[in-house]
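Most newcomers find our protein records easier to grasp once they have seen one. Nothing more is needed to start thinking about how sequence determines fold. Here is such a record, shown just as it appears in the course material:
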Amino acid sequence: MNMNNNKHLVAATLLIASLAGCADFSGITPQARMRDASDLGLPGATPSTAAPLDTQWWHAFGNDTLDQLEAQALQSNPSLKLAQARIAAAQAASQITHAASGPQLDAQLDVTHQLFTANGLYPAPLGGSVQDTGTVQLAASWEMDFFGKNRAALQAALGMERAAQADAQAARVLLSAQVAQTYFAWVGQTEQRSVASQTLAQREQTLRLVQDRFNAGLDTPLELRQAQGALPEARLQLATLDEQMALTRNALAALIGEPNKPLALIPPAQSAIKPISFDATISANLLGQRADVAAARWRAQAADQSVASAKAQFYPNINLTAFAGFSSIGLDKLLQAGSQQWGVGPAISLPLFDSGRLRANLGGKTAERDAAVESYNAAVINAVHDVADQLASRQAIARQQAEQAQAEQAAQDAYAAAQQRYRSGLLNALQVLNAETPVLAQRRQAADLNTRALQNQVALARALGGGFGPSTLAPN
């Protein structure tokens, strides 16, 4: 390339660079702002006195059956496999974007059998004749990303990949919570069925005593009909619980990916399940502990990079191109030294008039960015709301359990007193059975509250992120 050509190239580059300064972004600016912990009134991130949640937080309950169900669900559930497929798709997209910013090398082979026009560029005898032409060469190109278009696109793709990874973690946390919630519902139903069976036995014994008293003329038909009516009610409770337990087992089987396989479950006592310790405050730590919040944040950051890439499209596009190979008329000469050809040089382009395509693209990317930011803000608000609700429920359930324990103890004391008076001959057996009724009712209430307490611990573990953290993601 001679000196004059160099001068022309420099002049063209300066002209295009000056035209690039005319890129018009006016009126297209982001409107949404990402909310932070201070906007939500959350205290700063402080060390917690409670042990951090493990990614397999359900082990803290100390129940082997739950551990096995969780392992099966995390291995075979389709929702997790779908999330993994989305990660693979996002990784492929980021690899494609990364490859586009690097050097490209193509091999070319063209062979043509053609008639050359007699009235064109080539005179006779080539003009008007039929010849074989061939070209074999390598072509290389490399886009010089001076304005950061490809770098921003790559960062956007990597952000979407990390968002997909966080989505997979969110799906994992949700699935593990669903398994634990369903399992504890089944444990509570089993506990309630045991009490319902005792209630049915008590009603049957009561009916026999009333029948005997009626036959002896000590009770009226009213007392007999009341005792008879209590039996269907007790059997109804058992039938209802049997249905609930069957549906709960079906739900568990579906969660672990084996909907047609009956589960052989051995119910533990609710009292044998250990509670999990939680911090009773909500701090800024929450925003980094929730996978759904992290996914929304990375999508918002990726959208920022997409806006930067869209802006860079207003500036010149500079490519270095080169080719080297052989070209000839007549295939017998294709690989001869005289058929060699090569070329190298820059290619510079700048969009000057595109009927508003670039502005529309930038406007669309900016709108997508605002939508991603607002989705992040919504995820943050929902996360704080979720944890606040679970903490409020935990406190309320604890108060209800304390009151119920006192009520149950009072019923137990009354029942014990009735038994003592029966042994002393001051009460009959029917009165003792009637004194047992409040005890059985309180036991059912206790089983229900214990179920709610266990499910609340699961919900709180999920709301606090289920052990999620940036370290749980695979490196890019």
Q: What stands out?
A: The mean pLDDT is 85. DSSP finds nine helices and four strands in the chain.
